[in-house]
Structure formats: structure tokens, C-alpha cells
Amino acid sequence: MSREAFVLPTIGVVLVAFFFLIIFLAPLMVLGLVGQALKNYGLGWFSFLGFLLLSLAGSSINIPVWRSRVASAAPTVRYVYFFGIPYPVPSVERRVLESVLSINLGGAVMPILLSAYLLWANPGSAAPALVSTVVVSLVVYFIAKPVSGVGIVTPMFIPPLVAAVSALAFGGQYSVVVAYAGGTMGTLIGADLLHLKDIRSMGAGNMSIGGAGTFDGIFLTGLLAVILAF
């Protein structure tokens, strides 16, 4: 009985190894570029590493900021038995459910704190960062869509691209700081704060600003905007 052995060609092994190497190194390269860019504006490597670790640790922590009770009417069917025969009786049952709005520590609070620190360490960046924040907020507000059961959804690459372009246009020597602050704050305002009425209209449940943690739009927008503006 003969056996056939499948041997992966050498070029195939190299390509597979290269593919997995890229997957492993790509995040490190991105974080390395961001760290190098922010290093020139008062944030050292160890501080940036601490920011990343705290953001990662805080990804699972949601801080409640607003609670409300939502009354809803749900159609139900009751059965009335007459001589042992069930008869359906439609009715409307009113329920009071609690709705909680939270802010994620890693996905929203940490980027806000880093933005505040960078603006404090670079006072000349405050005015252009404000302009960038307004621009990003308006763009994100109009492209963000409320999705029931998910939250506010925005295209991934548009906010950082807008933040980077506005930072290069208005930021001057502070373009990196303006890109980060404008990207994070603009996304927070445009996608979440200006859509609070939509979040409330989604009904009861738990909604979190920056709820995806380090994979949330607020967090990622800041990092990608820095790379594009660097």
C-alpha cells in the first residue's frame, strides 16, 4: 500500500511564514510609529506604554453616567378556559425597563485624558485642535448611523482621515497633537454626544461610549490620525 506525502513547496512555506510575521509585527509597527510621533510632544515611550496598558486593562470597565426608565408596551396573549377549551385573549402589557448609558474607561476616558495632557503640554496646539475637533465632529455626525442592538456605527477610516487632513491644514508644527486630539474628541462628540437622542430612542438596555475598548472608533481614530499626520 503506497502513501502519498504532500510537501509544501519552499516558496509556500516562506509566504506563509511572512504572512504570519506581518500579522504579528503590523500592530507593533503601528504602535511604534505612534509612540515615536508623540515622543516629540512630551509623551515618553514609557508613558505611552503605560497609556496602552491602562487602556487595555480598562477596556472591560464601563462607568455608568446616566440611567433612565423606559416604559414600553408589548402585545401579549392570555388564555381563558371555558369548559376546558382555551380561548386566546389579546392584550397589551406595559413594562418598565431600565436603560443605562456608560462610558468605557479604555475606549473613551483614556483617549480623552491623553488628549487633555497633550494639549496642556503643547499650549500652541489648543486653537488648531479646536478647529479640527469641530470639523471632525460635523463630518462624523453626518456619516454616523444608529444601529439598534449595536450602537452608533461609523466607517472606520473616514474619521482618522478627516482628522489627519484637518491637522495638516491647521496644525502646523503641532499637527500630530492636533490629529490625535481632534480625532478622538471629534469622534466622541460627533458619533456619541450629538447622537444621544438616537441612543435613547433605541430602547432599554446597556449602551457604552467607547464600549469596544481598544478596538473602539474613538481609540483607533486617534492612533490612525497620528500616523497619517506624522
Topology (SSEs and partners):
Blueprint (H helix, E strand, L loop, with lengths): L9 H30 L5 H13 L4 E21 L2 E20 H17 L4 H18 L1 E3 L3 E3 L4 H13 L4 H18 L3 H6 L3 E5 L7 H13 L1
Parallel strand pairs: 2-5
Antiparallel strand pairs: 1-2, 3-4
Question: Which labels suit this protein?
Answer:
alpha+beta, 2 domains, two-stranded antiparallel ribbon, 56% helix
Strand line-up across the major sheet: 1-2-5
Which structural category do the helix and sheet elements fall into? alpha+beta
Compute the number of strand runs: 5
Tell me the number of structural domains. 2
Overall helicity: 55-70%
Spatial separation of the terminal alpha carbons? 63 Å
Q: What percent strand?
A: 15-25%
Which shape, going by the Cα principal axes? elongated
Q: Tell me the radius of gyration.
A: 25 Å
Would you tell me the overall average pLDDT? 75
How would a crystallographer describe the biggest sheet? 3 strands, mixed
**Alpha plus pi helix count:** 8
Low-confidence stretches: none
Strand-and-helix sequence, N→C?
HHEEHHEEHHHEH
